[in-house]
Amino acid sequence: MNNHSAELAEVFSSIQGEGGLIGLRQVFIRFRGCNLQCDYCDTPTGVSAEPCLMEQAPGRRDFVPVENPVPLHRILSLIEGWHRGWPGVHHSVSITGGEPLVSHEILQSWLPKLRILLPVYLETNGVMHTALDLLIDHIDMIGMDIKIPSTSGCTELWEDHRRFLRKASAKDVFVKVVVGEQTEDWEIERSAEIVSSVAGNIPFVLQPVTRRDGSVDIGPLRVLELQEIASRYVRECRVIPQTHKFMGQL
Ligand code: SF4
Fold first, then answer.
1. What is the CATH architecture of 5-246?
2. Ligand 1 pocket: which residues have CB below 6 Å?
3. CB neighbours of 221 closer than 8 A, spacing ≥ 6?
């Protein structure tokens, strides 16, 4: 692999189903590999011999397998073709995973070229702050997670998240926390405190664990209670499930 080829899982066009850019049409570039192992993860994270599944027409789900690693020019010509055939459709390109910052060396050469075609939105687990340093000049928007133990199984990431958010706040950023029925008050207090310690006006999203059929793993009263707790710290706390699931989008 060189700096112009990346291990990818999928490239496709869809509606952003969660977080601050919800509802917008994006080109999704899903990188393989992750630095964490969350309990709820349904994303293939490891590098494997699997090809990348690449859509040919945007949103038509006419995937073809493309050998990994995928060269950058293949992605650029795909997006250029989508621009010609479907002008103005895509708001931005979502760099997602897995954890895309695991591929930060590749992204250093990819992002400036992708950004000529579309604004760059980074979806990240919000831990790899030194990798973010290398890329932040080439990013327009950041959606970062704060991983809480009750839903992710991850512990002790708090200070990494705080450092990451300090750096990410140089850009248009929001924070997302996945919550379930078992989520405890202190987890939301601690997450919201991290956000308010950086800037109280950073949008804060509580995302109920969302099943394939669109139902959520938290009761209506509990989610209101968690929103009330977060609102003591942050100016704007929204509750948004993963809407792409009940719309049949990817
Ligand atoms: S950070 Fe995302 S991709 Fe990585 S293990 Fe957690 S849910 Fe899966």
1. Alpha-Beta Barrel (3.20)
2. 34, 36-38, 41, 43, 45, 97-99, 125
3. none
